[in-house]
Specification:
The protein has 341 residues and is mainly beta. Strands 1-2-10-11-14-15-21-22 form an eight-stranded antiparallel sheet. A hairpin with a 5-residue loop joins strand 6 and strand 7. The longest helix is centred in the last third of the chain and has 9 residues.
Length: 341
């Protein structure tokens, strides 16, 4: 029943929360009798809304799951079915530790927009500016396995999205049964992790081989983080005895996956019931991880693997640890002379 569902979703003191919304619009061309051959229609709109959200059931207390036995090759999932009939059931503690203080997530959004039409509707502009803030984000995040579990559902912090959306429509040609329609849309969104649970320096939101998808406070969500070469105080690449670069102890952020903007441009031609249309889809900026390229590097089929005609070479501007240290116990590096075979 509903009562049991809520009792498994949020703690008793957090099960009641309020959210609502309101919007209004104003057709100023009608109100002020401004309609003309140039500006045929004009409307302004304003809206504010809140939406509450809760997490999945059974995240507030520790739970048991039907157990599994595995040797790395074969799995046995309870309940076990006996050959002579009947079953044997077994349960084990979940790897998700309960959070008795879990609260609801709340999304608050403000929007201001305008709808303008010119030349009796032959040209139209729809513009929208928004700011959307998510507080007490409900997220299942990794925790150290030494706690006896691997993850916990938390209220992580605050996320803000702000941006602009534009739609331009036009009919440049309309002669008899023939018409040409154009529409172009543009959207730009700035996404930022505003705050985070004080116990977490960052949040892992995915993995791509040795590359991680993370979020850090004050930066866009969806940062690509991975290994980088170790460098000495002069910025030279440190290599091992085999001539290959040594990875630094700490990974670094390469950039984020967020687009600078997205656009779509559509053209449509109509003549006596026949229509022909085509679309340009534009997505500018943002980093993408290519698993295909990764496999090409591994197998040696990527063009970059033909570097130096696949002949041995020395990594440019590289040094190797001499095995000695200076007066501050820092390693002394010397020029690398070992080629990569």
């Amino acid at each position: 029943n509903a009562r049991n569902d809520w009792s498994s979703v949020l703690p008793e003191g957090n099960r009641s929360f309020f959210y609502g919304g309101a919007s209004t619009s104003f057709v100023f061309t009608d109100a002020f009798n401004m309609s003309s051959n140039v500006l045929s229609f004009g409307k302004l709109r304003v809206g504010v809304s809140q939406t509450g959200r809760v997490g999945d059931p059974y995240q507030i207390t520790n739970t048991f799951l039907q157990g599994t036995h595995t040797d790395g090759f074969r799995n046995l999932q309870y309940p076990l079915v006996l050959s002579g009939g009947g079953t044997i059931n077994g349960f084990e503690a979940s790897n998700i530790v309960g959070n008795p203080d879990l609260n609801n997530e709340l999304v608050t959004e403000y929007e201001i927009g305008a709808d303008l039409r010119f030349f009796n509707g032959r040209v139209g502009l729809d513009a929208n500016v928004y700011s959307k803030t998510t507080t007490d984000l409900v997220w299942n995040t990794n925790i150290t396995p030494s706690t006896g579990a691997t993850s916990q559902t938390l209220n992580l912090g605050e996320i803000n999205n702000k941006g602009i959306e534009l739609l331009l429509t036009a009919t440049p040609v309309q002669i008899g049964s023939f018409s040409w329609d154009i529409s172009a849309n543009y959207a730009k969104n700035k996404n930022e992790l505003v705050s985070l649970n004080e116990d977490l320096p960052q949040v892992d939101i995915g993995g791509l081989s040795i590359i991680s998808l993370i979020a850090k406070v004050g930066q866009p969500i969806g940062l690509l983080e991975g290994p980088v070469p170790l460098r000495d105080s002069q910025g030279r690449i440190v290599v091992a005895s085999n001539g290959l670069p040594v990875a630094a102890d700490d990974p670094e952020v390469y950039g984020d996956v967020q687009y600078d903007y997205v656009m779509g441009i559509s053209n449509s031609f109509s003549y006596k019931g026949l229509r022909f249309s085509f679309l340009f889809d534009i997505r500018q900026g943002g980093l993408m991880y290519s698993r295909t390229a990764d496999l090409q590097y591994f197998s040696g089929t990527a063009p970059i693997t033909t570097y130096n005609n696949r002949e041995p070479f020395i990594v440019t501007n590289s040094v190797v640890d001499s095995g000695t240290t200076d007066e501050n116990e820092n390693p002394i590096y010397v020029e690398n002379t070992t080629p990569v075979d």
